[in-house]
Specification:
alpha/beta, seven-stranded mixed beta sheet
Amino acid sequence: MKLLAMSSCLPRPRPTPYLFLASKKTTKPILNCKFNNAEAALHRASLRFQETLRPDPLFTDPYIRCLLSVDIEMDVNQNLHKHCLATKFIDDKLITSMQKDDGLRQIVLLTDGMDTRPYRLNWPASTVLFDVSPDIIFRQSIQKLEEVGAKIPRRCLLLHVPSETSDIQEALRSKGYNGTRSSLWVLQGLPVVTLSNFQDILSIVSALAMKGSFIFGELPSWLVKTETGTKSTTAEWMDKLFVSHGLKVEIVEHDKVARDLGKESSFGDCETILFAAEQLQFSDDQMELWRREFQRIEEEGDEDGFEEL
């Protein structure tokens, strides 16, 4: 009876994402190495610097200037930009989530290599940040940041995983990522060139993120438009896509974020879709723990039965 009760509590096994069958080795990187992301990364960095210079900034980034050229021109009177609004939204989600959960100390940043969040946000002690981004851009940025004295908070750790890596899952695990602990994921800046790229990212999150973890980020709106057509709405398409990876998604309107912050804006059609999603399934590491525990109980049951005989 004890074994039956235990087995009824086990989570139902979920289908393994097609990228991770058998050995679960990813056969291709999630970033096409031929895709030049440097120009786009610099543009986003300049927007964040411009926001910092505004009289009433959404956030201040004291380090972003060192990543830009010395002759860059800024227009501090420019209207609020959706990228900066999304950055503020994600910043707030990260900090408030960690304040609510003392055990939440794993952050995975899927970025363009110029994300200064590890340096400018006030991370709780023992936070481990994993930056998955283009290797060349990240290393160049780190060098410039170190030259101006940028440091992550004490007792925190920043680890880099090149997005060109063929097996992101294994690389994160080898760096210390633990799928049996809560985590927060951010997708902002990492190139999403095709639907396949985005599915790869969702598969990685689905496999590694513990149940109850979250991912916040931006998805190129052109990708959604090419997939939805006239048969389904954006919300319906995204819901179906995320659910297929065990995630529950909510689309976040830029205008609503602006209103919540007391800002006036009217973005209309945006180049990106802002979203927040929750992991509803058990991670692969959680499933492995259940498997081992069930196996242990079965073995103990067999030994008890043998002793009775």
